[in-house]
Amino acid sequence: MSQDISRRRLLGTTLAAAGAAVGASALGGIGRARALPGDTVDAIVVGGGLSGLAAAKSLVAAGASVVVLEARERAGGRVHNISSPKLGATLDAGAEFIGPTQNHIAALAREYDVRTIPTYNQGDSIFWNSGQSSRMPAALPLPLQAETLQAGAGLARAQADALAGFPVGEPWKHPNARYLDSLTWEQYSHQIATTSTARALMQVAMSAPLSVRPDEVSALYFLNYIAASGDENNPGTLIRLLSTDDGAQESLFEGGAALIPLRMARALGDRMVYNAPVRSIDFTSEIATVTSTAGTFRARKVIVAMSPAISDQIRYSPGLPAARIGITRGYHMGAVSKFAALYRRPFWRDKGLSGQVYGNGRPIDVTFESYAEDRHILMGFISADAMRRLDRAPESQIVRECIGNFVDYFGPEARDFIDHGIYKWDLDPWAQGGPVAVSSPGTLTTYGPALRAPVGPVHWAGTETADYWTGYMDGAVRSGKRAAQEVLGSLN
Q1: What span, in angstroms and rounded, lies between the C-alpha atoms of 67 and 21?
Q2: What is the dotted CATH code of the domain comprising 143-242?
Q3: Residue-wise pLDDT tens digits, 434-443
Q4: InterPro entries, from UniProt (predicted)?
C-alpha cells in the first residue's frame, strides 16, 4: 500500500461496513478494536504464530482493522515454551536460536525487551557415525570437520551450487533447477561423495536443520535453504547455517523464545481470537467469509499464515488452483521432538565438551547445551524415522532411549538428571511435525510460484514462504511482513 493510504481511510471503511468501535489501547500504543463474528474488517489473519503476528502487527501499524484467528489457546505456533514437570523451569520446546543476519526477529526481541545469551560453544563437539565418535573443536562448523577430505570437498561443492547465482526464495528460476529438483539430497550426496563417511557428513548437514531423511527432500530445496541463510547484503552460506559462533545457533533468548510472540499477541489485545481453528474460507473478488469454531468473520483480505503442508486442512470455495494444491501436496512436515534433561551441574564441560553432537542413526542425533534460569540442560532433537517410531511410545521409553544416547555421548553422569521435558511436534494437531515443511523432488519446479501467489483475496505467509531464513523465526517474521505489504497494496 502506498504511504498515501491513511489510517482514517482504512478505519473509515471498516466503520462504515461494520460499525466497529476503535479505541486507544494502553498496550504498546497500538489501537485496539474488538471484532465480532459478522463484522467486516480489512484483514483476517489465520494463524497466530510469528508470521501471523508479524503480519497483524504490520497491518495495524498501517491503520488496517485486523482479526487474528488462532487454533490453539496460545500464540506462537512453532515457537513454544514448556515447563519441566518437577522444577517448573522454562524450556524451549520449539524454535529457540538466533544468529547473525536474522535482523527481523532481532528487532522484535529488542522491541519487546527479550534479551539474548550466547549458546555455550567452548571445548569440543562430537560427530557420531556408525557407532563411532570423533571430537572436533566446537568453534568449527560441521563442514570443516571431516574424516576424509572428500567430505569437506563435497560440502564445499554443495556450498558452491547454492551460491552460484542462486535466486533466493525463487529456486525454480535457478538455471539448473529442473535437474537439481529431480534429485533427492541422498542422490545428490552420492553423486558428490564416494565414501560412506563423506555421505554421512553431507546427510547430517541436511538432517540437522530439517529433521527428515535425505531421500525425503529435494536437493534444490536444501540448496535454497543454504542460500537463504543470509540477507540482502550477506549471501547465505553453509557455514553460517550450521555454525554456533557467527552462525544460526549463536544465541538463545533469555526466558525462552516464546516471550516474543506472547508479548506481540498481548499488544494486539482483542484482535486475537483463540481456540478458533478455521474450517473454511469462502471468497469472491471483494470479500472473504472465514468460518471458525469461534464464529464466522468477514474481511476484504485474508492472510493464511500456516505451513503449506497443513493449509489444505481448510476448505476453500471456490477451490484453489491446481498449482496451489500441488504446493500443499508436495510439501510435508519434518518429524521432530525436543527432549531436554536438566542437571545440577554441566558435567560435560569438565570433559572439555560443548554439549553439541551431530550424528545419525540414533533417536537423538543433534544436541546442544541449552538454558533455563540457573539450571544446566542438555537438549536433543529426536528426528525423522526415530521420531516416527517413538510417536506413540510411552514417555518412559523415550526418556530411557534419550538418556541412553546422552550416556553414550557424554558419559555415565548423564544418568543423574533431576528433571526432563519433552514436546512431540508430530502429535501437535496444528503443527503435525517440524521444524519446517520441506518439498519433495519436482515440487518447486512444477508449482513453485504458487507458494506465495495470492488466490483472489487470500494471501500466504509462514516461514516456508520466506525468501531469507526460511524455516527459522526470522523467515517467519519476514513472510508476515511481506504478506501484510501485499494486502496493504491491494487495499489501495
Answers
A1: 14
A2: 1.10.405.10
A3: 999 999 999 9
A4: Amino_oxidase, FAD/NAD-bd_sf, Flavin_amine_oxidase, Flavin_MAO, TAT_signal
